[in-house]
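Hey, can you fold this one?
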Amino acid sequence: MEEINALFSMNLKRLRAARRMSLDEVSRLSGVSKSMLGQIERGEVNPTISTVWKIACGLNVPYSELLSRPQVEREALNIAEMRPVLEDEGRYRNYLLFPQEAGRRFEVLYIEIDAGGALKAAAHPRGTQEFITVFSGALRVRVDGAELLATEGGALRFAADRPHRYESVGAGTCRLSMVIHYPA
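Sure. Predicted structure:
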């Protein structure tokens, strides 16, 4: 099973070294404590999705850059062999399938949200859009005071450069695919 903590640790260290930044600087930019950042770099904690987003926003990088595997020409993935990033006490599971890479301005995620599970997401970089396809269950997205609802076979698109919230509103687990498109 892939160790998401090890990838996150490696990528955070790489980004900090490339930018010659201290843990204090990353803490100031992200709002994540220096001690938490140290634990993440040592692979001692499993950070939440919210923590990963805060660090990504603070460093001004896509979320996927912190969780991505080294770039390859081809790959086959099996979700059962991947370790998700968890939120909402494990009721929200995020599997980063294909991260944003050089020359590609989008990333692909597979997400499972148990009944009643939710995630409040911070605004992504200006011009970012999300494209969601629901495979099972029901998903409600709240953004800019509006509610978008999609059930099995439905799809949503919205500007994700403002805070938004995902909620599983059906009786069962909501399973979906999400494509996040970043501006040039």
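The chain has a mean pLDDT of 89. Let me know if you want another pass with a different chain boundary.
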